[in-house]
Amino acid sequence: MTEHPTAGIDETVHQRHRLGILTIAAEAKRVEFGYLKSTLELTAGNLSRHITVLEEAGLLEVEKGYDGKRPKTWVSITNKGREALAAEMAALRALLDRHDRG
Amino acid sequence: MTEHPTAGIDETVHQRHRLGILTIAAEAKRVEFGYLKSTLELTAGNLSRHITVLEEAGLLEVEKGYDGKRPKTWVSITNKGREALAAEMAALRALLDRHDRG
């Protein structure tokens, strides 16, 4: 029996807010914390927690600095993060294909 | 700003094992517990927990009976379950489309 498409899914990437963070991070060189927060409609605490999960998994890098006098946090996707996101997208595509055939 | 595709995702449906259960249930009139267990490579306890979440959300119906003398459990997707799965698939398709354009 062929493996079910959901077997190829990693919850680290699949969880909806983390999937949102990674897809947005994949669209730019780096993204600012406040932009993610408003785009994904998350609280700062919730966003921080998900960023930490992704950082600890090596999928995101976090950079802290200043924009003028304002402290800012930027995140960027790592090569490992791009690979994990590509694997997730491939699994989702396989799931959609199977569903469409059903 | 257009809502990010992950905003349309409901974790009740999106969690990977529950997504597996619903997609398989959507392919047949009803599916047997043991079939889900082997296809999704889950333990009985883990599968039971996810089925309960889906049943309590009104997305699955659970039927217990016998196949000869052997007790069996079957699950079937409800209309609400089909609608929730269709919404999830639409959100995943929007996410893939956005990712492909990126």
TrEMBL record, chains A, B:
InterPro entries assigned to the protein according to its UniProt record, in alphabetical order: WH-like_DNA-bd_sf, WH_DNA-bd_dom, WH_DNA-bd_sf
SUPFAM superfamilies registered for this protein in UniProt: Winged helix' DNA-binding domain
Transmembrane segments: none
Gene3D superfamilies listed in its UniProt record: Winged helix-like DNA-binding domain superfamily/Winged helix DNA-binding domain (1.10.10.10)
Pfam families in the cross-refs: HTH_34 (PF13601)
Residues annotated as domain Winged helix DNA-binding: 18-95
Identification of the protein by name: Helix-turn-helix domain-containing protein
